[in-house]
Please model this.
Amino acid sequence: MTAAEIGLLVLVVAFATSIGAHYTGACMGMPHALGALNRRQALWLMAPLALLGAAVASHPVEATVGLGLTHNRLTEGDELLVLALAFALTTAYTRARVPTSTIQLLVFSLVGVAVGVGDPVEWGTLGRLVIVWVAAPVGAFLLGLLVTLALARLPAGSPISPVGHRWRPGLRVGPALVAVGMLASFTMGANDVSNASAALIATGTAGPLVAGVIGGAGLAAGVLVFGGRLLQKVAFDIVKVDAVMAVAAQLVQVAVVLTAAEFGYFTSMNQALVAAMAGASRARGQSRTDRRALQGILKGWAVGPPSGILLGWLAAVLLRHLGLTA
Model:
């Protein structure tokens, strides 16, 4: 392997590790917070499922991100630059508590670099991605509302059934919470691994299966090594959820994100979850949604894409001017 390929592989695994740790709350935070799983159980269930999702269900998204956003393949150096920028921006915005989407930062960093090196962007593919990103939270809100209403009509004695306006804690609810957390973990692997692994496909370093496995291994490592500290920080700052709302919201999150991934488009796990929880809260006749958190999605949209494009373009032009890229 060349030095560039080794550097790319290291950055792919590092970025995937960061992504895996970041999404422990979005996948297993609810079953853990509601007492269905302890921390160790949650992490050890999530890690192999994220790896499995990345290995077997990520290929359409990897193809879109790796091959569908530019007319020509970017060089290994350009892909290194894209990953480094997306990684740096994700870290910076996370520390600044600006709720940007890693997916959007990666895509728009790639677009900026492509423009900077003179590689034509496939604007049609980008436009379809943007439509998915806008539609996903709206659909998740509506589905969150409808699924919560449907679950509330289940008869007493069902695997999950209401007691008044609260949900009975314990074993009857636990399996449903664990099941949706497991589905979310698989979905995260399918949806998010391409943030890192698509660069391997774009450069011809690896095929979809190998790229998915490499990225999935990074996701799993991030979950197990770093995920414990982030597991507690789930979306309960947005709405106060009970078990029915948790089950409904995470079912909707899985349905929206996995459906998009099967068509080759990835979307934000966190934005889908936030919107689904807001819909579930509305179904309860409550207005407990933290508007600041929902406004954070719009703030992320206002900050993330422009910064990704601008920094990608500036970095590509500067490196070319200095003779460091072809």
